[in-house]
Sequence to fold (89 residues):
Amino acid sequence: MNQLDLQDRHAVVTGGASGLGLAIAERLKASGASVTIWVLDETAGHAAAVGLSCNSVVADVSDLAAVTRALNETLKAVPAIDILINNAG
Fold:
């Protein structure tokens, strides 16, 4: 597997609690990135975040106000978002 150098980078993965989003988040972590997953289901998000050792934020990406809240919550925990994987839906 190719190794990406994502040290000191932060990624947000929407729909990161399962399936392809979870696999992407795992790959980003394996490449050195810190990750926040944005999820609809708080319980599933928490479980995935524990497994990944990352943060999860509840966000409905079809709702601008929810995305704004998720962005602000994420930026309270990290200085910047370097990578956005829009996988939700």
